[in-house]
Amino acid sequence: xxxxxxxRLTKPAFGVCLWFALAVPVMAANNPSAANxxxxxxxLEASTADHPAQVRVMFYGQSIxxxxxxxxxxxxLEERYPAAQFEFRNAAIGGYESTxxxxxxxxxxxxxxxxxxxxHVYGPMEQYEEIIQRVRERTSAEIVVWTSHLNSLSAERxxxxxxxxxxxxxxxxxxxxxxxxxxxxxxxxxxRHLAEQKLPVKDLLSDVIHLNPxxxxxxxxxxxxxxxxxxxxxxxxTASGTITTVTADSPALTKGPDGSLTLRFQGNRVVAISDGNxxxxxxxxxxxxDQPLEGVKELWAIxxxxxxxxxxxxxxxxxxxxxxxLLEEDWTLTCLQDSTPDGKKIHFKVRxxxxxxxGDGWSTERFVSRSQRVIIxxxxxxxxxxxxxxxxxxxxxxxxxxxxxPLFTRAYESRPAGSRTVLVQGCANQAHxxxxxxxxxxxxxxxxxxxxxxxxxxxxxxxx
Length: 464
Fold this sequence. Notes:
- By secondary structure, the chain is an alpha+beta fold.
- It has 3 domains: 12-233, 3-Layer(aba) Sandwich (Rossmann fold); 242-298 and 408-452, Jelly Rolls (Sandwich), CATH 2.60.120; 299-406, no CATH class.
- Helix content is 22%, strand content 27%.
- Strands 6, 7, 8, 9, 10, 18, 19 and 20 form an 8-stranded antiparallel sheet that branches. A 5-stranded parallel sheet has the order 2-1-3-4-5, sandwiched between helices.
- The chain starts with 17 loop residues before the first helix and ends in a 12-residue tail after the last strand.
- 40% of the residues are buried.
């Protein structure tokens, strides 16, 4: 099934296609959970060439979420809202169900801090819910989830299945309601399409579960049709936390006689927006609660480790933690000669480009490096599985690499008008002060944008 063509309205500035506008009343009536994405779509509707909405969109899950339907949906959003500035990222990992994805999310999901998250994963619902809960604790993202399409694994018949009694679909709807997510009942719409068209389940699949091109088209259409701006539903502004703009004349902002700016805020992320009137080369030191940012471990992150041997697409190690503030540097883990060829017991050493040699350990034991900037749990090693899957042996001197990087700006520099600079991200979700101490010249900051997640005062844990 192909998507309908996109037809522009006579006022293209609205960035809405005709079929989409006509579908709004139906979607509003059928899916009240669309109230939970209205912040994003309100901003997209208001976007203009002079004042474009800047929206970060992430797709996260496993192989189904890595398929072409996400690119179809991405293109549809770009065509629907041509004035918006989108940043898309698909960090899905094929074969990683919820028990594993809950580990990789520390590297992939929370530090990237999307505005809109599309999330779907198989596996135990306990870890499925845990990922969503952590999104709510660590970000202000709006979340879209959906029930799973029919597959051939259980010989499902579209004319017989009653999705209201499908236990996984029921649980997904419960989790969505608990955490104020938008939920799309893709499963029921998929079943209905198959029944109406008198198609067997396999006709939309490339194997027993993955989508063929027609399946990708339908998948993108079902989800895309429900991504609507419906003012009648209300904006539900606190469902995903709040994003608040603090202007230069706000009482939350204090100007010192030395030209310093002190922002009082509640949340875990602050972005500065430039007015373009700063002095060229002007800089300011950034302090959080009167302390340098480098010493706050929650303000650091680690990239997803590099992939395993034998051309596998999965990371060699799923999660790397730390107990001490990091440095901005490159890390290398090297497998040593006395490791077993099948990867069951790997002897390794780690080295940071700034930290230097930081100790050695075994994959079968919990490893904490000398600097405590590297912590690896035995459960997070993926090399043994990779070698078994590929029927291969551990390459001599095989290396795993990653980077540690800051979620803050040490020194703010004046920038062109409209530029956005993340000053701080990942601190405890509570009351803070952020201070900019200028070294020279006018900073030219028009406003600060404060992100406040909806749950808790919990900082991002560095190791579970």
